[in-house]
Design brief:
Rossmann fold, elongated, 3 domains, Nuclear Transport Factor 2, Chain: A, 415 residues, six-stranded mixed beta sheet, Hypothetical Protein Ta0175, Chain: A, domain 2, eight-stranded mixed beta sheet, hydrolase, alpha/beta, NTF2-like_dom_sf
Amino acid sequence: MASLMSSARLMIVSDLDHTMVDHHDAENLSLLRFNALWEAYYRRDSMLVFSTGRSPTLYKQLRMEKPMITPDITIMSVGTEITFGKSMVPDDGWEEFLNQKWDRNIVIEEASKCSELTRQAVSEQRPHKVSFNIKKDKAQNVIETLSEALQKRGLDVKIIYSGGIDLDILPQGAGKGQALAYLLKKFETEGKRPMNTLVCGDSGNDADLFSIPGVYGVMVSNAQEELLQWYAKNVKDNPKIIHATERCASGIIQAIGHFKLGANLTPRDVPDIAKDVKNASPGHEIVKFNLLSEKWRRAEVEKSEQFLADLEAAYDPSGTFIHPSGSEHGIGELVKFLRESYGDKQGKQYRIWVDRVLATELSSDAWLVKFDMWESCGETRQGCVNTVILRKKESGQFSWVHVHQTKLDQPGKDA
């Protein structure tokens, strides 16, 4: 986001659990499909926002469990915390705004009088969020009782029930929708309001996102009953909001295409991506080459000299490669490794994905590209920061002239 000098072409604001992340997808294919699409076509001029009910603790835990890319902005704890970038720098203005007519101690005092409520884990109790679990048949009466009690104490709060079990008490000005409205106003003040915004969700605590004027919206196919009922009651005639026929991240990709917001054919769905020259760009090249490497090592392509030649052609014969250990080699070492690694991950849950692809133009035909590359095999994950110099050939293909790798810590540990 820091690299954007003007309005984002597209801003995607997505819930995580059961929206961007499909917990029933053991291979994480829908998430990997979205990752490849974003890094190939959108990272350079668009913004990705994760809007989750998770606290920072549980958000970081999810990043260590799933092949997630890094958002430009993270909205956490049901819209009570906004942070920017990989370092997750807090938005102080948002914190000050939420302090109005809010007293956490009074909320806890009144809630303790409701025996039906069970406090959630300590990690889920945040400065502007108090969270409980409650049975579905008890929820409505408790919400009405609590709302009246807190109003009498002079507080202005919002009570959100979602997932059939979670009850969150927040300042009235908080919530996923309000956090998004705050960001949009902030961007507008800076003259950088996104050209298009797509919000994505599956449960009741996402409803506020769909209430923001002018945004596009997608409820993924697996959306919960509470959100579908809210939709039918409030915005069913809004042509900018759809109920996708695809689950989770695949539903988000479907919505990008439905609303014609940009490219929605992810590189993971292109049958012969090695020959895809018409979409050539530094970001697309990085995604393409790593995807080809994954397919080669998983033995999902035929072991042919032609396919290997396509992989090897990406490397400049006179190029250099610096290993994470610091040792320098000719780029031929990477070619040799490719030759010897065919099928070494066959039958295993092996995946490669890239994150934070940032290309800087050096000349009319050369780019300096930095990106994180991750490999997972079962429960094991390793990553490295790659600094690459790419040069575009007359054929339209790219040549990797220099590759420098540095070991990377697990995502979530340094977030």
